[in-house]
């Protein structure tokens, strides 16, 4: 628990960087509400909703294209048109009041999964923070599924071992190690795009039952041995036997029981059974 707490404290610190520059790079889209301030022109200043065609109506000059432009681009367009016979050297500021046109989907082992609007150059760290960070059941990896078309419904998460079929819409699958992200490797703090799905998988687990002190499921790492898995379950009881430990494993879609040694490696979702020793 302490390591996870430290991890997210570090991630929170990385979020403290100024966001003003990021917001200025935001690309305006349909349904966004923008706040336009024209210096010393209160009648022109106010909130404007970008319509489905990417335009909005502004006093004096009529329809203005905003869709596909960054905020500075909208400012320049307004300044150019207002300077053409209406105002002398107008000073204009444009900001986003409500982000509605672009969104990302956050699924899996986070505290608050759901749909989140993209606000500026939103990064992986920022959206994980908005989703309340990962749960204690989360693996150490985050998967970003990037649709070829962008937008629309969330892409289907790939389960371990699955590949992309010909009909899959995801054009790119990005896997990020959370510890690398927390260590300050900013190349892993990728910028998100409209329609991205951020999926936090559940940790791979091994199940331990029979004559152990604390039977149940336990998160496992690659390279975990039978003995290490037994240790996770508190070790065997005084009635248990390590000589006849068995694993129930799914092989080719069928569950099979196999005998193992304590030094054998376990696989995700194995069930280890510790029998009672002979008296």
Keywords:
279 residues; wza like fold; Outer membrane lipoprotein wza fold like; 3 domains; five-stranded mixed beta sheet; 6 helices; 18% helix; disordered N terminus
Describe this structure in words.
The protein has 279 residues and is of the alpha+beta class. It folds into 3 domains: 28-98, 2-Layer Sandwich (wza like fold), CATH 3.30.1950; 102-200, Outer membrane lipoprotein wza fold like, CATH 3.10.560.10; 205-274, Outer membrane lipoprotein wza domain like (Outer membrane lipoprotein wza fold like), CATH 3.10.560.10. Helices cover 18% and strands 29% of the residues. The chain contains 6 helices and 15 strands. The protein has a 5-stranded mixed β-sheet. The chain has a 5-stranded mixed β-sheet with strand order 12-11-15-13-14, with helices on one face. The two termini are 40 Å apart. The model is unreliable at 1-6, 14-22 and 159-170 (pLDDT under 50).
SSE diagram, text form:
Layout: H1 2-14, H2 20-24, E1 33-38, E2 46-49, E3 55-58, E4 62-65, H3 71-83, E5 92-98, E6 103-108, E7 114-117, H4 124-130, E8 141-147, E9 170-177, H5 178-182, E10 197-200, E11 205-210, E12 216-219, H6 226-232, E13 246-251, E14 254-259, E15 271-274
Parallel strand pairs: 6-10, 11-15
Antiparallel strand pairs: 1-2, 1-5, 3-4, 6-7, 8-9, 8-10, 11-12, 13-14, 13-15
Strand order of the largest sheet: 7-6-10-8-9
Level-1 CATH class name of the largest domain: Alpha Beta
The dominant shape is: rod-shaped
Low-confidence parts, pLDDT < 50 over ≥5 residues?
1-6, 14-22, 159-170
Q: How many helices? A: 6
Distance between the termini: 40 Å
CATH architecture of the largest domain: Roll
| Main β-sheet description | 5 strands, mixed
Rg result: 27 Å
Order of helices and strands: HHEEEEHEEEHEEHEEEHEEE
Structural class: alpha+beta
Number of domains: 3
Relative helix content:
10-25%
């Amino acid at each position: 628990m302490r390591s996870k707490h430290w991890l997210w404290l570090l991630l929170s610190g990385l979020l403290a960087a100024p966001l003003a520059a990021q917001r200025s790079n935001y690309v305006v889209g349909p349904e966004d509400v923008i706040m336009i301030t024209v210096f010393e022109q209160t009648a022109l200043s106010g909130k404007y909703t970008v319509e489905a065609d990417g335009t909005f109506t502004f006093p004096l000059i009529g329809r203005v294209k905003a869709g596909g432009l960054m905020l500075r681009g909208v400012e320049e367009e307004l300044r150019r048109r207002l300077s053409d016979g209406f105002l002398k050297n107008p000073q204009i500021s444009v900001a986003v009041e409500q982000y509605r046109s672009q969104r990302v989907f956050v699924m899996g082992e986070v505290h608050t999964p759901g749909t989140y609007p993209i606000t500026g150059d939103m990064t992986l760290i920022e959206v994980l923070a908005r989703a309340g960070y990962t749960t204690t059941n989360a693996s150490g990896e985050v998967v970003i599924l990037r649709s070829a078309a962008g937008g629309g419904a969330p892409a289907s998460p790939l389960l371990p071992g699955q590949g992309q079929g010909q009909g899959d819409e995801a054009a790119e699958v990005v896997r990020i190690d959370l510890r690398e992200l927390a260590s300050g490797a900013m190349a892993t703090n990728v910028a998100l795009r409209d329609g991205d799905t951020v999926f936090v998988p559940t940790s791979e687990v091994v199940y331990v039952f029979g004559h152990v002190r604390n039977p149940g499921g336990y998160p496992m790492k690659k390279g975990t041995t039978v003995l290490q898995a037994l240790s996770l379950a508190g070790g065997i009881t005084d009635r248990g036997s390590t000589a006849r430990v068995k694993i129930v494993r799914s092989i080719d879609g069928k569950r099979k029981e196999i005998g193992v040694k304590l030094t054998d490696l376990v696989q995700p979702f194995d069930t280890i059974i510790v029998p009672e020793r002979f008296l």
